[in-house]
Amino acid sequence: MNRVVVTGSGIICPLGADKASTFAAALQASSAIGPCPADISTWLPNIVVAQASVDPLTLLERADHGLDRATQFALLAAAQAIADAGFDCPPTDSRRVGVYVGIGFGGSQTSDAQYARFYKTLSDPSLKHKDPTVMHPLTVPRIMANAAAAAITMRYGLQGPSNTYAVACASSAIAIGEAYRAIRHGYLDAALVVGTEAMLNVGAMMGWNALRVMAKPDAHDVSRSCRPFSIDRSGFVIGEGAAALVLETVSRSSQRGARVLAEMAGYGCSSDAQHLTAPSVDGQAHAMQQALQEAGLAPEQIQYLNAHGTATDAGDVIETQSIHKAFGSAARKLAVSSTKSMHGHLIGATGALELALSIEAMNSGSLPPTAHLDKPDPRCDLDYIPLRARHGCHVEAVMSNSFAFGGSNVSLVARRFAAP
To answer: Model pTM?
Structure first.
């Protein structure tokens, strides 16, 4: 089997417009959480969100302005990752290079805009001469879940398989795992993996609000509204953006003299098969155990874990219990944090974002904190790196967890690369 390495990554998210600024902000415990845009707050005045740090339209060519916002984010993160990897495009082995994308709700902005246009045209007396059923001819290509994957393949001439995974909050973690598996087993030599999401619109946010899982605004400081593992947590905050990673075989990366960021070492995936929204200790622990087993690592060989850590009452307690079950006595020595406390929950993009941050933590020896954790829940009794980053840490291997509604659980393990 092939060894698989990460040679590039890119990020555009609420904390920053690139990988360096995002990781720096995370280490400073800077929160990007704030009030809703006016169009959402009109209907949902008590909702907070994590908007991208920069409007993608300001970074894209005019030809890309008609794409859905999620696709725009995906193109920007992909461009960063390709540049970071020094990856020539189109590659000479383009049929051996795939594109794997994770997204929770494809085309959310386009869909919401089309519904708004339909009902405005239908109800506005001044528009009686217009047909409300007439939509933009590219509506479906913009909304389709694989729009981002298609745009990336065409932009960079990548002719390998183009696969899109829509598994709620586990989407891009699964995309990474499946790309890793395809390269490991020889079906591909490289892949560009992207997680993207853009659903900060009225329709999507009303749906999330109906689930009663959204954080209440902090009365004193709205940026502190997402508090994973805290006794006074109240739910998660939806964010937007994208993250991308370039995965390759060791032989391909060495042939082109690429710098290696990390080795992908383990992928665990499980289904709870018991409840649509309530998490399971056994299901989550099984995903972590699979990832450790595939990586050939004992629990004590993982020094940092980026938790799913959504700041829901049940979710944080169950994840704490599942880490105890998977790591045993080593759980007490494990450093864990939830960076969602700062960048929010990017749903389909969150797995890729958090793995990219975990790899940065491993290479820098600086572990991002769980921000705002000044009142820990006694039931969440692990080392959750409260309030401030931890520097000067020796990290050989990291794990990143992504757990989704529907009972899908994913754990990814990356380790320092040792040349053969």
So the answer is: 0.95
